[in-house]
């Protein structure tokens, strides 16, 4: 069977981007007609009612491009692509129903599991992975179950990250494009085309989703992108015997996975349901610090691009002869790049916490000492950061600014009707 070329992948990318950009206005009209609207909420960052169902445009773009540029005999099984397309249609439909009717969490989880089972049934299964310093690990019996768990996790990770205009679409476009380059270099051409058209569909939708967003992808879009990128990771890098192949997807997905991990641990700490929405995501913390939506996604895009650069360096920098021998100079380059990426990641998380603390401390200081000058408040905050000691203040019980339920920037908005939750926004 003929393998698709890089040029065909580029055509698929362009076509998917054009289709998504053209179809999104149609999904916006449909969303308004059926009432699939995301309204501003107390814990959200949206400032106006915005139509959902943008994921339908992403699905249309990905499906059309795949039917043109991916052969019917996708993968090792002749019907594998048909199974992926069927699963994509199912999870898009479940997500669209959730966008309109706010389905119970167990129903949504059931849809995710069903979509994952379909692609596993058609041959998308992790059977062998190669780990650094460990070697090959085989999963002759547990492979299908592990793949289902991994695909469901991917769908939820992308869904959790869809909380501010342009974030999920932009991050997914960066990750999918990088996976396409790596998959082509590993000789996995068909998954590379799938990655390229996924990146194109996300980028085309981003035309309407970049702040201020005119359309939201909703659960139908975030779950779809999560499923497609999970399939690309399994059928692309993970199924090769190259050591770095398993590491690259983990590096690329570090930002959404870290965000999801922080949020889930926070909910477990305070004994809240994992599926319950809150405002502890990275983008919520940036909003509390005072970042605009565009500045927020710029920081998160930059973070993702930095990690994408590291993943590409691990694949293309000749630090090893692939026989266990390292080239000292190039190895030092890789180590330096990895340390820079790790330091930048730790610093960004640290800055989010410290700046959040400084802003909350400033509010507390003004309550304690309303007569103090700005310089005096800054001096006291610096002392608290150094000593770890702070003065307590009793806030009125109705004021939730101290526990982070409301952004601290600007005046409070007047009470607005709380709409049913449709995404983790």
Please outline what is shown here.
By secondary structure, the protein is mostly helical.
Task: Report on this structure.
The protein is an all-alpha fold and 425 residues long. The protein has 14 helices and four strands. It has a two-stranded antiparallel ribbon. It has a two-stranded antiparallel sheet with strand order 3-4. Helix 6 (167-185) runs antiparallel to helix 7 and helix 6 packs antiparallel against helix 9 (244-252). The longest helix has 41 residues, at 328-368. The two termini are 44 Å apart. Residues 73-78 and 384-424 have low confidence and may be disordered.
Descriptive terms for the model:
14 helices; single chain; two-stranded antiparallel sheet; globular; mainly alpha; 425 residues; 4 strands; disordered C terminus
Question: Share of helix among residues?
Answer: 55-70%
Terminal CA distance reads 44 Å
Number of helices: 14
Shape: globular
| Binned strand content | under 5%
- Rg from C-alpha positions? 23 Å
Largest sheet: 2 strands, antiparallel
Strands, total number: 4
Low-confidence stretches: 73-78, 384-424
Q: What is the fold's blueprint, element by element?
A:
Elements: H1 6-34, E1 37-38, E2 50-51, H2 54-69, H3 80-101, H4 105-121, E3 128-131, E4 135-138, H5 143-161, H6 167-185, H7 189-209, H8 218-238, H9 244-252, H10 254-269, H11 282-289, H12 293-316, H13 328-368, H14 374-387
Helix pairs in contact: 1-2, 1-7, 2-3, 2-7, 2-8, 3-4, 3-8, 4-5, 5-8, 5-10, 6-7, 6-8, 6-9, 6-12, 7-8, 8-9, 9-12, 11-13, 12-13, 13-14
């Amino acid at each position: 069977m003929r393998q698709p070329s890089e040029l065909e992948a580029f055509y698929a990318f362009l076509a998917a981007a054009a289709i998504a950009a053209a179809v999104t206005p149609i999904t916006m009209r449909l969303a308004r007609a059926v009432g699939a609207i995301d309204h501003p909420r107390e814990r959200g960052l949206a400032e106006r009612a915005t139509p959902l169902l943008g994921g339908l445009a992403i699905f249309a773009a990905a499906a059309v491009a795949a039917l043109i540029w991916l052969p019917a005999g996708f993968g090792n099984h002749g019907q594998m692509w048909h199974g992926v397309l069927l699963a994509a249609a199912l999870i898009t439909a479940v997500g669209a129903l959730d966008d309109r009717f706010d389905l119970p969490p167990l129903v949504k989880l059931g849809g995710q599991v069903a979509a994952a089972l379909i692609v596993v049934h058609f041959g998308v299964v992790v059977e062998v992975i190669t780990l650094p310093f460990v070697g090959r690990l085989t999963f002759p019996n547990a492979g299908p179950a592990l793949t289902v768990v991994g695909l469901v996790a991917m769908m939820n990770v992308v869904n959790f990250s869809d909380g501010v205009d342009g974030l999920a679409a932009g991050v997914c476009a960066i990750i999918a494009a990088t996976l396409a380059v790596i998959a082509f270099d590993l000789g996995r051409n068909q998954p590379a085309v799938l990655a390229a058209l996924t990146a194109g569909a996300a980028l085309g939708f981003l035309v309407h989703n970049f702040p201020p967003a005119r359309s939201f992808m909703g659960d139908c879009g975030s779950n779809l992108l999560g499923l497609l990128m999970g399939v690309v990771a399994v059928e692309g890098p993970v199924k090769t015997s190259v050591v770095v192949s398993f590491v690259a997807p983990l590096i690329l997905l570090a930002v959404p996975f870290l965000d999801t991990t922080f949020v889930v641990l926070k909910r477990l700490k305070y004994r809240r349901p994992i599926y319950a929405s809150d405002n502890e995501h990275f983008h919520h913390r940036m909003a509390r610090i005072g970042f605009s939506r565009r500045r927020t996604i710029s920081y998160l895009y930059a973070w993702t691009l930095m990690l994408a650069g590291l993943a590409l360096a691990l694949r293309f920098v000749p630090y090893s002869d692939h026989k266990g021998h390292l080239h000292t100079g190039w190895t030092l380059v890789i180590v330096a790049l990895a340390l820079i990426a790790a330091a930048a990641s730790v610093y960004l998380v640290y800055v989010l916490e410290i700046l959040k603390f400084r802003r909350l401390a400033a509010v507390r200081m003004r309550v304690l000492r309303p007569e103090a000058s700005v310089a005096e408040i800054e001096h006291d905050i610096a002392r608290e950061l150094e000593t770890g000691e702070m003065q307590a203040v009793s806030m009125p019980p109705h004021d939730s600014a101290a526990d982070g339920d409301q952004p601290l920037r600007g005046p409070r908005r007047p009470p607005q009707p709380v709409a049913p939750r449709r995404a983790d926004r």
